[in-house]
Each structure stands twice: as structure tokens, then as C-alpha cells.
Amino acid sequence: MKIRAQILCLLFLCHLQFCKAQKSQSTNTLPKVENHLKGELDYTHEALELVQMQDNGEEITLGKINADGTIHFNLLEFNIKTLFDSIPLQPNKFQNWFSIDSDCKDRDVFAETPFDDIYSKKYDPIFIKKYGVNIAALYPVSDEKIVSRNNNQRTISPSEATYFWFYIDRAITFKEECTKIAMSTGTIYAEVRANINFEKGWNFIEENLVEVQNVVQDDSQTTTVRIIEFKRISPANKKVKWIIKHFMEDEEIQVLKKLYNLTPISKEQFETWAPNKLGDLSLTTKEYGNPPKGRKNKNNIHLIYANESQKKEIDLYVVDFSKSPGDAEMIDFAYAMENDGKEEKDIKPYITQYNERENITQLWYKVGDRMFVEASGANIKAEDLWGYIKKMKLEKLL
């Protein structure tokens, strides 16, 4: 019995050593971020969340960057066919993900192929989310200088490569070659080769610029045909450099941080504030938590004011950005488009759009960095609609 106990003890110790070795090996094989950004993107203070957006508008988590800079991917399986069947959107043709498309010489894009019923999706890049907003991206490349280029993922020299995660609904072998021609001139500009043994689910793919042919003529050199290869690779391969690139300046991120940490306006505050009249219009509808069309933020109040005798009506939402600072992105973009090229004296505090056919004025107004008003006025001109909005005394909500 004593010998048996000793054997069991030895086996237990060996098991512990094996577990430690496994843990050490898995840690050592994790990919790691190459560059280190200070400020809010300093991962040594707290882990950074990695996300991407599905075609149905739902966000998925892909993992995190740990405090030591290692990247832990948490790639959950999902039913990609069900996802695409649930939305009125056809998935991208499988071969197109690998640049094998209508530009390929002697290829009938309408011909049936063995890959026509495949459901697949390219996830590129991976976003870094903080304060409810994608403030940066994580790019896998063969050289950090690729990320510094304007379009991030442009390989221009031989042996440069970029990488991406790819999801597929089945395990297949995909082997294709394609000669790319310029449709306008018929000249060859690339040779594309793919040789990939896909596993069902997630696969990490390398797009490698193998060769660029140079032509010397009359003391000048021009670059011509690019030879590009696609293949499967490990994300922990030492060839892969994981680089963070931010989208926002520090000042913009600080605004997001402030909004994210604010206490939201409560239902009671919204309802107590809502005026019963706006000039000659009376309140007919007041509801909390019903977001405007196309938006998800439920921290809002929906109000309708009307004057039936004059057939005037204002249907509006007041939305609070706290805890959801990403909601400001769309309105910021609209302001930028509306005021592009204008002199400061010509810039109004609001944006309007008029539908002549229905005699409806749409108005959008951002209240500082905190709130947003979306209003629709029937039989009301833009200046008059703005006059009604000013009567609401929105500053009292703050």
C-alpha cells in the first residue's frame, strides 16, 4: 500500500508539472503587440477589448490585449448561415474574399462553382473598444510601416504581407489561380494564387506579396505584375507583427471617457423636465426609452407636440449620450458634412433637411457633448422649428 501511495503521489506531481508546462507553453505561444501607445491605449493599465461588427449590426467580442501586451483571442463559434439568412443581405461570393473575381482573365463570374453555397466572412481589421467606442484597431502585418500608410493595409514591396481572420461554415480545400487584367486596357496587373486547407470556423489567413516584376526601358523602371499568394498561418507565427493604430486624438478620447463615466439622465428627470407646451403647440405624447429609428440608445425621451387647427406637429427625441458616447459619431459626421467648406459666420448650431413633397422639416441639434435632439416638423419651416426647440430650455436637463 505504501508503494502504491508513492506511485500515486508521483503521478500527481507529474500531472501538476504537465499542467504547468501546458500553461507556460500556451502563454509563450500567444501573439504579442509590437508597439506600445501611451495614454488611454496603454494596455499595461487595463486589458483592451477586441471587437468586430457582424453584418446584422450585432457586435461580437474577439478577445483582449492583456496587461503584458499578449493577445488572447476568444473566437466563439456561431452559425454564420443563420446570421445571413436572418437579414436581407446576400453574403459576399467566397472567391471574392481572395481577389478572385470579375477581373480574372477568361472567368465567367456567373458560372456555377463548388463554392457557391458557402457562407463566409472576412474580419479585417480587429477593433479596440473603449468607453463604448472603437477608438483604435489592431493590424496584423509583416512590417509596422504598412500600418503607417494612409490606407493601412497596402503592401507595395515583395515579401510584405498582411493578415486577417476568416470565418467559414465548413472545412474545405481551396486551391485557385487567377490572372488579373485591367478591364479598360486588357493588360495583366496581378497573378493571384490561393492554396488553403480551411477548418470549419475561424482561420487566420496570410495575404503575401511574393513578387513584383520591374521593367527597365529607356533608363526608366516601372513596376508591373504583382504576384499575390493567400495561405493559412498561425496568428502566433513570428512573421506576424501585431500593431495598434488609434483613430482619435487624446482630447477626443478624453471627451468619450467623460461621457462614459457620467450618470445618465433618469426617467424621472426627463419626464419632470418635458414642457407641456411649446408656444402654440401642446404635448400629446410623452414616452421614455423608445429610441429613434435606427438607434439603440434607450436613455431618451420621445415627445410629440401638435396644433390640430393649424395642422402643425413636432415629433422629437432627446437622447442622452452618457454611457453611450458612440452615439455621437453619426451626428458629428452629419455636422462635418453639412459645414464642410463653410465660413464660421455661416455655420448654424443645427442641421436641417426639407422634404418638399411631404412638407416636413428634419432638424438635428447636438447639445454640447452631452445630448442630441432629433426633430421632425410637419408644416413648419426650418427657422420656426429651431425657434420651438430653443423654447424647450434643454440646458435645464443638465
Kindly describe this structure:
The protein contains seven helices and 19 strands. With 398 residues, the chain is an alpha+beta fold. The protein folds into two domains: 29-255, no CATH class; 262-397, Protein Transport Mog1p, Chain A (3-Layer(aba) Sandwich), CATH 3.40.1000. The strands form three sheets. A seven-stranded antiparallel beta sheet has the order 13-14-15-16-19-18-17, with helices on both faces. The chain has a six-stranded antiparallel beta sheet with strand order 3-2-1-5-6-12. The chain starts with a helix and ends in an 8-residue tail after the last helix. This is DUF4367 domain-containing protein.
Which features does this protein show?
alpha+beta, Protein Transport Mog1p, Chain A, 2 domains, seven-stranded antiparallel sheet, 7 helices, disordered N terminus, DUF4367 domain-containing protein, signal
Give the topology.
Layout: H1 2-28, E1 48-53, E2 59-65, E3 71-73, H2 80-85, E4 120-123, E5 126-130, E6 133-141, H3 144-148, E7 160-168, E8 172-181, E9 188-198, E10 201-217, E11 220-232, E12 241-246, H4 250-261, H5 267-273, E13 277-278, E14 281-288, E15 300-307, E16 312-320, H6 328-339, E17 350-355, E18 360-367, E19 371-378, H7 382-390
Parallel strand pairs: 9-11
Antiparallel strand pairs: 1-2, 1-5, 2-3, 4-7, 5-6, 6-12, 7-10, 8-9, 10-11, 13-14, 14-15, 15-16, 16-19, 17-18, 18-19
